[in-house]
Amino acid sequence: MKQNLYIKKKTYVVIFIIVFLILVIGGFFYLSRKQISNNANGHVAPGKKDTNQILKADTLAWKAPEETDIPAGQAGDEIRYGKELIAHTAIYFGPKGKVAKISNGMNCQNCHNQAGTKPYGFNFSAVAGSFPQFRNRSESWVSIAGRISSCFHRSLNGQSPDTSGKEIKAMIAYMMWVGKNVPKGIKPKDAGILKLNYLNRPANPVQGKIVYTTCQTCHGKDGQGQLNEQGTEYIFPPLWGKHSYNDGAGLYRLGNFAGFVKGNMPFGTTYRHPVLTDEQAWDVAAFVNSKPRPHKNQSKDYSIITDKPIDFPFGPYADNFTEKQHKYGPYKPILEEKRLQTKNRNLNK
């Protein structure tokens, strides 16, 4: 009788241990699967880089927040002022600027369409989550204020604004608000501009001149743009000449210009319904950037020459292709050579 009772108790203990182990092991697998599921949905364990999240972000479209989402009070006033400065930069910093006379009369919005909210129109969706940012051009880490200052020097062909002043702080506040829903380190697929396939030939300025006839209604036959009645800002920016962007601006690289016009020009075009073919976009880019414009000394840009983009039009280069080919293409041979050099460097490490 006592022996049976002992066996019975021992059996209960064994069953309890087995059930306990099942619960522990089951719980472990449940939590592991939940972590995997969370990572797939964009929740990452602290200290870990989730490449799946980055790949997912590349497939997601971005939509700018509504102006009704701008907060009330002083914070909202600063954001609204920042938007005003992006849309009408020249009124505050142009030749007749209220704050300072340090730029060419163009507005940030001329490149960053719809005050930096248009898909594939150099929008600000990734700004909040990607700065400070390492820039190969300067081989240094750059803040948002530093990036704005660089645009003043290049696209606005001017001088540095006071980066500690309320205007630049307001511009930063607006950019941060525009990208407030984008996680740190994530770049939405429609940030920046369209990336066009390279042609099998050089981009042709002569053919581009023909394409430009559709652009001159707004930008003028001589690329001079259109000023407003007060002469305080350009309604349509000049595309060459002394009031346009200088040759240090990002748009002076043909790949950037072609991708921008493909998704945004003629005025009112969207990336969903482009007007120009890829070839027309490349050719009109070649035509516009063959015209005279202010020069910027770029001898200190890309001090590591292997970091130069293949369409950067100023040598020296790590290859034997000419400045003309780097500017107009064809780019595929340059790209193939760059890949080969990278492969060889990696093998020699």
TrEMBL record:
It holds the Pfam family Cytochrom_C. The chain crosses the membrane at residues 12-31. One of its GO terms (molecular function) is heme binding. The keyword Mitochondrion does not apply. PROSITE patterns: CYTC. InterPro entries: Cyt_c-like_dom, Cyt_c-like_dom_sf, Cytochrome_c-type_DH. Residues 203-292 form the Cytochrome c domain. Gene3D superfamilies: Cytochrome c-like domain. Keywords: Heme, Iron, Membrane, Metal-binding, Transmembrane, Transmembrane helix. The keyword Methyltransferase does not apply. It comes from the Bacteria. PANTHER family: BLL4482 PROTEIN-RELATED (PTHR35008), CYTOCHROME C DOMAIN-CONTAINING PROTEIN (PTHR35008:SF9). This is Cytochrome C. It comes from Hanamia caeni.
